[in-house]
Amino acid sequence: MTVEVQDREYRGVEYRLLPGSRSNARKLSGIAGACRFVWNHFLAKNKEEYELAKKNGAKKPSTSFFSLGKEFTQLRKEIDWMQEYSFKIVRHTLKYQADARQGFYKGVRKHPRFHSKYGKRPSFTIPEDVKIKDGQLLIPKVGWMWIRRKGGNPYPDGKPVKGTVKKEGRRWRVSVIYEIDTQARTENGVAVGVDLNTYNVACTHSAGEQEMLDIPKPDKKEIRIRRYQRKLARQQKGSNRRRVTKQKIAKWKRKQKNARKNAAHHHSKTLASKAETLVREDLNIKGMTKSAKGTVENPGKNVMAKAGLNRVIQNAGWGRFNQYCDYKFRNVVEVDARYTSQRCSVCGHKSKDNRKTQSKFKCVACGHADHADLNASANILASGIGACGRGGAFSLETPMSRQIEGIFNYAL
């Protein structure tokens, strides 16, 4: 029997924002510009104060949101054009800066950088009092604007608590955070092991079911993007033709991103509706996609091949898929990724000879044959069940040594 569990959660919904006129579009860009100005102003000011305090051996200046907020109140009184924009929206930029500095001091984030007018997409956040009525969103000190989404609002009973407006190419979008009562997570005792690959997600359920979920290939979109990028490189900087080409690149990159997001949402929802626990490999995705260029003193090897592999992994969207699974599943277990593709899911024998090809697996000990990715997902599931029930041990017991063609092989 499946037991539904009530919970209070926050879910994000992305809409297309329709300014309705060039005047309103300029106002949105103006708000984003004011936020950028405040970010750069206080970043430069705090950097100068920090260097001065370090030189004189004085106490570091406070970079908390409360302290920055008080300074912003005074700055806003001194600058006349700042009165045209919402106080709360522009001030909230300093919340991001305060969080970035705290992360830098803790050693978990890089030092915040200055925001360029051309290098960063215009964006701003409505931190509270988000008002949506009859398909329209209220932008403080601007007015009501239409919002559109295919399928409408999936959480009509939810309460909008926060909104982030951003510009992608020539379009404006808004991501609204809803506070909802959800019943999406179920408790049925079923676990699923997943093996993430470049073109599919192999899944093995504890109930015995196995399936392969396809990841969309980026071939056509990637070819079109590269063609426009080559065209962009030949065009004169600052020209109208170059501006149009950049808009086309942004358009196709947006299509590519939406395809990845759709696949990640669809696959994570499909698995979460069938299982309570997700078991996956503990992968260092950032390290796996690191550039192989190296330095002048120590140049990298097989740089082009590594760059191609990086593109394929990034297109597969492993990080996004894991992020969606983190909040859709009740439990998430990560296991050691070593030898999951070489170990037999039936007898536990481990050998690189078991992996005949990229897709074919045949155990040289017991003769078990299966798709290599499905066999790996079964091993991941078994390891996860073992980690939960045996304090981190594998659920597959280590078999006795086997003598195959005069050579002793050990499973683990």
Task: Please describe what this structure looks like.
By secondary structure, the chain is α+β, with helices and mostly antiparallel strands. It folds into three domains: 8-182, no CATH class; 187-333, no CATH class; 352-409, no CATH class. It is built from nine helices and 18 strands. The chain has helices at residues 22-56, 65-78, 87-106, 219-234, 240-272, 285-288, 303-316, 318-328, 372-389; strands at residues 3-4, 7-18, 123-126, 132-133, 136-139, 143-148, 159-168, 171-182, 186-187, 191-196, 200-205, 210-214, 277-281, 331-335, 360-362, 369-371, 402-404, 407-409. The strands form five sheets. A seven-stranded antiparallel β-sheet has the order 3-7-8-2-6-5-4. A hairpin with a 3-residue loop joins β10 (191-196) and β11. α1 (22-56) packs across α3 and α5 (240-272) crosses α8.
